[in-house]
Amino acid sequence: MSSEKKQAELIKEISGVNPLKCMKCGKCSASCPSYNEMDIKPHQFVSYVVNEDIESLVNSKSLWKCLSCFACVERCPRDVKPGKLIDAARQVVVRQKDQDYLSPNEIPELLDPELPQQLLVSAFRRYRR
Amino acid sequence: MKYSYYPGCTLRTKAKDLDAYARASAKALGFELEEIEDWQCCGGVYPLGTDEIATKLSSVRALNEAKVKGQSLVTLCSACHHVIKRVNDDMKNVEDIRTRANNYMELEEPYAGETEVLHFLEVLRDKVGFDELKKKVTNPLTGKKIGAYYGCLLLRPSSLLAFDDPENPKIIEDFIRAIGAEPVVYPYRNECCGGYISLKEKDMSKTMCEKIMDSAEGFGAEMLITACPLCLYNLNKSSGKLPVVYFTELLAEALGVKEEVQKS
After folding, report:
1. What residue stretches are annotated with the Cysteine-rich domain (chain B) (predicted)?
2. ipTM of the predicted structure?
3. Architecture of domain B130-256 in CATH?
């Protein structure tokens, strides 16, 4: 099995999603509050997994723009849940050595007096292993 | 009535108001919030991967503690509620996660999702009742035009959260009516504030929160209320056009217990 095929299988396994159910209606992308910031849009993300183009996905800035707002998950008429696929791709990246998107060293300069603890724990959980 | 209560990390630090007003209001309404001993942070976001186990254990511990006491578990922070409710669903319905989490936990009796998880607003709606709440209001906030800001985590995915209609919720509007004020329904009330994006990309959440503020202001809201410390933070970091407060502050005010909280 090629490495990209393996990674596509891994993304499907971690997410528990079957991307073949997608009927390309685009409702996920239409709902996504980060749409303008994403290079690969949520509906395209599903096709990339189907086509096993994982290299593009793991290098996509979309991984770090998804807000886990679950609008796509809520509104998907086929229960494909693109947000879960994006999270799984993010996991495939951050579970590798030295691939964290957030380092504790960055924190001091990101802090301000009102910043809630919830923001730090949430970001750490999404951005690193 | 006594409930187990899970405050969460931020309610001990930056969101002490959210917690203190809730406790005082609960007392005034005749129910008790019994804090779970040695609770641990829920992690802030639900771990979506089907193979994530260790990251769910803090929720399982809290859930099991409530089960042992035979109480429902009440949450207040939207994020804690989201995480704990979804982990509870995993423990109830996902055999693989239930088995592996219980293998870690080695409890006297395995935990299988028995605990009922309630958000404080659900307690008000489903246990106290908004009609009953209305009767206990001594200081109605008459004439105040208030926009409910729901955000994401209380509503979606609705199949699991089962909190309210995810596209047209009304629980917070009903709450606003119960405390004597006037709810302002505006289209952006269930749009995302940006959540954790505001750590590294402050402009992104700022743009999103401006839209929410503009939408609420355009429909005539004078202030916004929320249950989530991160939503409150993000909204306050935008234009600041409208004041944003925790719903429990207004509840305490309406019940006439706000001042005693402020003094303590």
Report:
1. 4-85, 148-235
2. 0.96
3. 3-Layer(aba) Sandwich (3.40)
For A52-88, how does the pLDDT look when each residue is reduced to its tens digit (9 = 90+)? 999 999 999 999 999 999 999 999 999 999 999 999 9
Residues pairing with B224 in the sheet: B147, B244
Taking CB atoms and an 8 Å limit, are B44 and A125 in contact across chains? yes
Q: How far apart are the first and last CA of chain A?
A: 26
Rounded to 10°, the helix A82-94/A42-50 angle is 70
Segments making up each domain of chain A, as ranges: 3-96, 102-129
Residues 1-60 of A with CB under 8 A from B: 13-16, 33-34, 37
Put simply, whether B105 touches A (Cβ < 8 Å) is no
Q: Do residues B229 and B200 lie in contact, with contact meaning Cβ atoms separated by under 8 Å? A: no
Selected for mutation to probe chain B from A14, A118, A122, A124 (highest B CB count within 10 Å) is A118
CATH of span A3-96: 1.10.1060.10
d(C-alpha B121, C-alpha B224), whole Å: 16
Residue A1 banded pLDDT, cuts 50, 70, 90? low
Stated pTM of the model? 0.97
Beta strand B117-119 with B145-148 is unpaired
In this complex, the residue of A87, A117, A125 whose CB is nearest that of residue B10 is A117
Please tell me the CATH code under which domain B2-120 is placed: 1.20.1050.140
| A76 in reach of chain B (CB within 8 A) | no
CA distance A40 to chain B (A): 17
What are the sequence ranges of the domains in chain B? 2-120, 130-256
pLDDT, tens digit, for every residue of B24-40? 999 999 999 999 999 99
